[in-house]
Amino acid sequence: MYRVWNFITTYSILLISGAIIALIWANIDPHSYHHFVEYPLWFNSTIGIDIGYWEKAYGEAAHHFEYGDIERVVTFHYLINDVLMALFFAIAGKEVWEAVILENGSLRGKKAATPLVATAGGMLGPIAVYLGIAYFLGSTTFDAVARGWAIPTATDIAFSYLVGRMVFGAGHPAVRFLLLLAIADDAAGLIILAIFYPSGELAPIWLLLSVAASVIAFALFNWLPRHLDRGDQLRPKSTWMRKNLKWYPYAIAGCLSWFGFAQAGIHPALGLLPVIPAIPHADRAFGIFAEAERYLHDILNDMEHGLAIPVDIVLFFFGLLNAGVEFGAISEATWLVLAGLIIGKPVGIFIMGWLAAYPMRLGLPAGMRTLDLIVIGFVAAIGFTVSLFVASVAFAPGPVQDAAKMGALFSFGAVFLSFAAGKILKVQKQEG
């Protein structure tokens, strides 16, 4: 397994720093914090905006981008969550694409079968716990929180890897199992976001713009040069395209795709995903965010390298703009999200992992015990980044959204549960 420590460490420090600052700020001076988060950066015109409208724009929840012949407001929150977080999801999508499509991808073949089945358990378990407890709390609570069922299905790849490495040791097969599960979980999470959490009224016809942008970029700048170079080992057309046009055609296609998603009513943070398959890519991958990939210089990997620092900064601001929840906001939604993660994840992963390994005869990786599935379940219960993101789109700004976000933040408690489970179940660390 190639080292991913440097990326994870940078990602963790910046994201956690932003979240901690947000929590402190929101609990010391909530008015100034929300003023900062909802500050209007741009209107579609400055004519006719009076003081009352200005105050409304950043005094209430205004992080939206309304389409039509009405005033458009872009806030700091919108800029990060709906525009710049598309870069983060593009990098995550690139890793999923590699894992699925490349010949040696980690989600291909029998080696991925058991983690994939366990992933299903890691999503169904939290949903069942979240909705089940909400149902028993009564119809009023259920109606208020039901839309947040997807929040506890998330697994934060970076933090789960970090904790899994410390609990199992870098060389333990359970760490690779955990990475496969987290990648598949994120892939499923992207699908859930697209289908169940539209950002506005659905207008699917606009998705044709995203598809067209991706197909045209692939045909003109990827397939055509390779087709013209067939039989020529020097590949002059492809080389000229890579050296002169570089990544610009794909960036333009990405902007068009993002706009198509926004107009279609699907969350625009997912808007860059259709373009990823169109970008020229090396025929090998080294694993999730692997350090060795910095030596690959195909256009897709070069784009990922170039986005590394900007995405780190975006994640800092994501934590800053989304984790600012007052502790007084804790309510039923907090405990439902937390229960879904720390109960539903371990139970679901263990049950489905056991079914895959034994009744389905798919087996477990050599050197991994059945009890390790429980520990993996606790590690995967760290929802954080994606859970925060889903909470921000599942609920309108207000008490329920704040309570759900607090549950996502509290999922860091799974770190301590992971170490405790590792000790109780006698995990043998394997350094590598």
Keywords:
mainly alpha, 64% helix, 2% strand, globular
Describe the structure in your own words.
With 432 residues, this protein is mainly alpha-helical. The chain contains 17 helices and two strands. It has helices spanning 5-28, 30-37, 51-59, 76-101, 113-136, 139-145, 157-168, 173-196, 207-228, 236-245, 248-264, 299-322, 332-357, 372-379, 384-394, 399-410, 413-424; strands at 40-43, 73-75. The chain is globular.
What is the helix tally? 17
Helix/sheet category = mainly alpha
Strand content: under 5%
Q: Could you estimate the helical fraction of the residues in percent?
A: 55-70%
Overall 3D shape? globular
- Mean pLDDT level: 85
At a glance:
With 432 residues, this protein is mainly α. It is 64% helix and 2% strand.
Question: Helices, strands, pairings?
Answer:
Elements: H1 5-28, H2 30-37, E1 40-43, H3 51-59, E2 73-75, H4 76-101, H5 113-136, H6 139-145, H7 157-168, H8 173-196, H9 207-228, H10 236-245, H11 248-264, H12 299-322, H13 332-357, H14 372-379, H15 384-394, H16 399-410, H17 413-424
Antiparallel strand pairs: 1-2
